[in-house]
Design goal:
alpha/beta
Length: 379
């Protein structure tokens, strides 16, 4: 096949110094498209969220390792900024503009910019992480439609997101690829050394819950499962690692009231990149007890570190983690079923079997497939 035509591409979305999964995705997308010969520029936020609307402690990650070049132009809540950003992008004369979309909050800014660009004959595409949010609010559908009606095509990474997108804008050209495996967190660490860093016994069954804590992610369900798990696995250890966007008190009280303090460590803080490899390398299995979901970047980090998962049957999680191949799938909001799966994982010694499945599944989650989709839509 002939090589794809080289394009001038402007990426719009969060990049360093902003933190989080979408910024990490932007970082990988930038480097991947550049490596394929495209001329790529990044338009970043000057203000992503107003401080009053941001649930965490900070939106920024410092220091930033290997930041990508970007121009911080877009203020999410200033319409004058939307128009000036559109003018700036148009002046660059790109072949395509590729938006990172994950929240209806950004749809007014994105939709306004996209309309300005399309009026000048510039092709507008989007990588859609979520077509609709996990926690719905009034106006989400209308805001999302405003942006998607201004797009020429979209890339989605799960059936769940594609179904949401079709419901919003049925005629929109859509390409589905699997969410690529994150590969910029460094290599894994030898398990014993990783556990030594974390203070975990070499032979203790270890579970990891990773990522921002929101109610829809089901941490409470996992905590409710732990007494049953502890009865069967007296040495079990669970590390919860991620900034909590809920009130922490309820989780902390539950751990104390159910005598889990010696078995559950709540690390309610943003996890810097250098601490991610030890956490995943030390774990036997990553648990995602989500109550609702579309897809998950956490699963892709687990795949990078070649760790099996226990996930719930919601959204795109069963697509990412085939049952009894790369992990175990259980019903959502069911502590007993979750506990039984965790106990089964260790009692039946499923690590080797599921680890092999992870190695095989990991090969399907190539960044090149994503970039090929961008090139296809650009053409």
């Amino acid at each position: 096949m002939p090589a794809p035509a080289t394009r001038k591409i402007v990426l719009v979305g969060p990049a360093a110094p902003y933190r989080g999964g979408i910024a990490h995705f932007m970082h990988a997308t930038y480097h991947g498209l550049v490596a394929r010969g495209h001329q790529v520029e990044v338009v970043n936020f000057s203000r992503q969220y107003p401080s009053l609307l941001f649930p965490g402690k900070t939106q920024y990650e410092t220091p930033v390792a290997d930041p990508i070049p970007s121009d911080r132009l877009l203020d999410s809540v200033n319409p004058f900024s939307w128009l000036s950003t559109a003018r700036d992008i148009a002046a660059r004369q790109p072949d395509i503009v590729l938006f990172m979309h994950w929240m209806p909050f950004f749809a007014p800014a994105y939709g306004t910019i996209a309309r300005q660009l399309r009026a000048k004959g510039i092709r507008v595409l989007s990588i859609v992480h979520n077509a609709l949010p996990h926690e719905r609010r009034p106006g989400d559908v209308a805001l999302s439609r405003y942006f998607f009606k201004a797009c020429d095509g979209c890339i989605v990474m799960s059936d769940a997101v594609e179904q949401d997108l079709v419901g919003l804008q049925e005629a929109l050209k859509t390409v589905q690829v699997r969410h690529p495996v994150y590969n910029h967190f460094g290599e894994g660490i030898e398990r014993t050394n990783a556990r030594k860093q974390l203070g975990i016994a070499p032979d203790a069954p270890m579970l990891l819950f990773f990522g921002f804590v929101r109610k829809y992610k089901g941490l409470q369900v996992l905590l409710e499962a732990m007494p049953q798990v502890l009865t069967a696995l007296p040495a079990v250890q669970l590390i919860v690692a991620g900034e909590c966007y809920d009130e922490t008190q309820g989780y902390e009280d539950f751990v104390i009231q159910h005598n889990l303090s010696g078995h559950v460590e709540l690390r309610f803080a943003y996890i810097p990149e250098e601490d991610i490899a030890p956490l995943f390398s030390a774990a036997d299995v990553v648990v995602q007890p989500y109550i609702t979901a579309t897809q998950s970047g956490v699963a892709q980090i687990a795949y990078h570190f070649e760790r099996p998962l226990i996930v719930t049957d919601v959204g795109g999680l069963p697509e990412i983690v085939p049952h009894e191949r790369a992990g175990l799938v259980v019903p959502p909001a069911d502590p007993e079923a979750l506990a039984a799966a965790i106990v089964r994982f260790f009692k039946e010694d499923l690590y080797a079997q599921l680890h092999q499945g992870v190695l095989e599944e990991k090969q399907l989650y190539s960044w090149d497939r994503l970039f090929e989709a961008v090139e296809t839509l650009a053409a």
